[in-house]
Specification:
Layout: H1 15-24, E1 28-37, E2 42-47, E3 57-59, H2 66-78, E4 87-93, E5 109-119, H3 121-125, E6 134-140, H4 145-148, H5 151-166, E7 171-174, E8 177-178, H6 183-186, E9 201-203, E10 211-220, E11 226-230, E12 237-238, E13 241-242, H7 252-264, E14 266-279, E15 282-296, E16 310-314, H8 316-321, H9 329-342, E17 354-355, E18 360-361
Parallel strand pairs: 1-5, 4-7, 10-15
Antiparallel strand pairs: 1-3, 2-6, 4-5, 7-8, 9-14, 10-13, 11-12, 11-16, 14-15, 15-18, 16-17
């Protein structure tokens, strides 16, 4: 691969001279694979020759395509046969952006990141590491990548993960930085730890005797996407909703409507109760609703936090990718889609997240 334009030799250059010119601009080529488990944690490898963790992958061999190299590396390093058809990122890695030992004469690299998919526990159990090179694998929280990987590798892995969630197609990077940052990049989503809420979900009303800790809402736009709030300081994602206040008079619906108005300047209609989350450690309930969005105003300052949340529309599945709710999240998601059907709304097709940066009415 070269950095020069693929132009025919000029009258001033012979074929040999032109070939030498192009060879002088050659860079390396590499391929890596982003794999997550069902909780959204990223597979990284511990190797004996580097102090940092790595994604599965390696160099593209002579005459080999990047996709075939990625498939080969997964087979060699994890003992798993896979098919890779979706690219997530292409990174132009400069010599300055990824320092190497001087004797390696590193000229730069074009590194492709492919989507290895979400692996179940059964598939993970089938991993067979080679007797050398790969010492161990582990699945880690996205926010931990910066501490475990080299800075350029961590940026690239997070950018690829955001591109997978965003469904915007492969992202173009330079030294791990997106040329055109998405709203997930701009808010640094997944750079800080996701709140861990591994609570069982129960459809139906909250039992007597359980104090209400929180009331949150899956608020649907007409296209089947839901309103998601991103903290501008940490990138943390949450649904609209919050903690009951005295003015709510013990009515969780009043809590949901008030909190949604304060956090997102959003008005709800056709509120439906989904169920609640129980906490094994204490007798409290976190109740969940679904509703249709009627309108949003200008982005407000949330009185509880002093933040102006970044408001986006996302599919429910995209939202869950930004939460650490454990495997029980699947039960809540099923109730969410049941409520969407009752609201006579379509199932949203995956697409890039849309920021609501001004008033909108449906």
């Amino acid at each position: 691969m070269t950095t020069a334009d693929d132009q025919p030799p000029t009258p001033d250059l012979t074929d040999e001279e032109y070939g030498a010119l192009r060879t002088s601009a050659a860079v390396w080529a590499g391929a890596s694979v982003l794999i997550t488990d069902e909780r959204g944690r990223v597979l990284v490898q511990k190797v004996g020759y580097r102090p940092f963790r790595l994604l599965p992958g390696g160099a593209v061999d002579r005459g080999e395509t990047a996709a075939r190299a990625a498939v080969r590396e997964v087979a060699e390093e994890l003992g798993v046969t896979t098919t890779l058809t979706r690219g997530l990122a292409v990174d132009w890695v400069t010599a300055a952006g990824a320092p190497r030992a001087e004797e390696m004469r590193f000229p730069g690299e074009i590194l492709h990141v492919f989507d290895g998919g979400v692996w179940t526990e059964e598939r993970i159990a089938g991993v067979r590491l080679p007797p050398d090179e790969i010492q161990a694998i582990e699945f880690v929280e996205p926010a931990d990548l910066a501490a475990l990987m080299s800075p350029d590798d961590a940026r690239r892995a997070l950018a690829a993960l955001r591109a997978r969630i965003d469904h915007a197609g492969p992202v173009l990077l330079e030294d791990g930085f997106p040329l055109t940052p998405s709203v997930l990049d701009r808010t640094a989503v997944l750079s800080t730890p996701r709140a861990r809420h591994h609570f069982p979900f129960h459809p139906g009303p909250v039992p007597d005797g359980l104090a209400l800790r929180q009331a949150w809402c899956w608020a649907f736009a007409p296209d089947g996407r839901i309103l998601l709030l991103l903290d501008p300081g940490t990138g943390a994602a949450c649904l609209p909703g919050g903690t009951p206040e005295p003015e709510d008079d013990g009515d969780p619906e009043a809590t949901v409507r008030r909190e949604t108005r304060e956090e997102a300047a959003a008005e709800l209609r056709d509120l439906l109760h989904l169920g609640y989350l129980s906490d094994p450690a204490e007798p409290v309930a976190r109740t969940r609703y679904a509703a249709a969005l009627a309108a949003v105003g200008a982005p407000p300052v949330d009185p509880a936090t002093g933040h102006t949340y970044v408001r986006v529309l996302a599919t429910p599945e995209q939202a869950l990718a930004l939460f650490d709710w454990g495997l029980a999240a699947a039960d809540q998601l099923a109730s969410v889609h049941e409520a969407r059907t009752r609201l006579a709304l379509p199932r949203a097709t995956p697409r890039p997240l849309t920021e609501l940066d001004g008033p909108h009415t449906w």
